[in-house]
Amino acid sequence: MKTKKILSAILMLFIVLNSGCAKDDFVETVGVCPIVVSTNPENGAINVPLNQIISVTFNEEMNPETIDESSILITAAGVPVIGAVNYSGTTATFTLASRLAANTVYTGRVKTSVKDKAGNALQTDYVWTFKTDVVPVVTLTDPFSDATNV
Fold this sequence. Notes:
1 helix
C-alpha cells in the first residue's frame, strides 16, 4: 500500500511538471515586435564629440512609460554614465549630466523592458559601442609662451 501511494505521488508530480513544461507555442512574427532602427552615434563610430547627445530611434512609437534611465544605459568599462532619458515620437535621447571622457569606448544598451504601445517588447537587448574623440593638446605655439620683443 505504501509503495502504491509513493508511485501515485510520483505519477502526479510527473503529470504536473510535464504539463507545466509544455512546449512554448510563441512564434515571433516579423514586423510585430519593435526594433531599434538607428542610433546616434552609430555602432562602431569613432571620434564622437565629448558633448554628444545620444539617441535611439525605434521602428514604431513606443510606450514612454517603459523608456527611462533603467531601460537605456550608457556605460564606460561597465561604469554607468549619468544622464537623463527623454522620449518623443519614435526617438529616445540620452542627455549627459557631464561630458564624455576623451578617447574612451562607450557601450549603449537598450533593454528588453522597452515596449511598444501594444505591449510588445524588444526581443533582445540592443547593444552598440562607440569611441570618443581625443582631446587636442597644444604642443607648440608661435610665438613661444612668455616670448618678449615679438
